[in-house]
Write a structure and sequence with these properties.
By secondary structure, this protein is mainly β. Helix content is 0%, strand content 44%. It is built from no helices and 7 strands. The protein starts with 7 loop residues before the first strand and ends in a 6-residue tail after the last strand.
Length: 147
């Protein structure tokens, strides 16, 4: 993605709708909204400032009281939200979204087995795919302020 041609101001909740398939019965989706600064004298490689982050344990995609495990390789729509933030992305910066299946040690590790997280001794690697097409419109929602 190219750097911003003009500044962009945002304020409010960050929401990402992700279409996901996985080899596992359960996994996590984590997001980070980042203001990516261009290279400068102080930071020759640039600088990535984390603005907000969120997580969704996929078994709780529809309800926190009635978990639903996934069928491997089926596509599911999962919404991940992050706490509200406000930022002015200056011209020359980039709006970056990092999506992952883990953000340890900030959030507990998911065993990906569908078992009880606190007592599950077995852990497996989840092979996750994020789908991005007209049928699966994975998207980021930000409240952009006028002017």
């Amino acid at each position: 993605m190219r750097p911003l041609q003009e500044q962009v101001s945002i304020a409010g909740e960050v929401s990402v709708e992700i279409y996901l398939s996985s080899s596992a019965k359960d996994t996590d989706l984590t997001i980070k909204l980042i203001d990516e600064y261009p290279p400068s004298v102080d930071f020759p490689q640039g600088f990535a400032m984390n603005l907000t982050e969120g997580i969704r344990r996929v078994r709780y995609r529809n309800s926190y009281t009635e978990p639903e495990l996934m069928e491997p390789h089926q596509v599911y729509r999962v919404t991940v939200t992050a706490p509200a933030t406000a930022n002015l992305f200056a011209a020359g910066h980039r709006i970056r979204l990092d999506v992952s299946s883990s953000n340890f040690p900030r959030f507990d590790v998911n065993s990906n087995t569908g078992g009880t997280i606190a007592t599950d001794r077995i852990k497996i690697v989840a092979e996750n795919t994020i789908h991005m097409s007209t049928d699966h419109p994975t998207s980021l929602s930000l409240q952009v302020l006028p002017g």
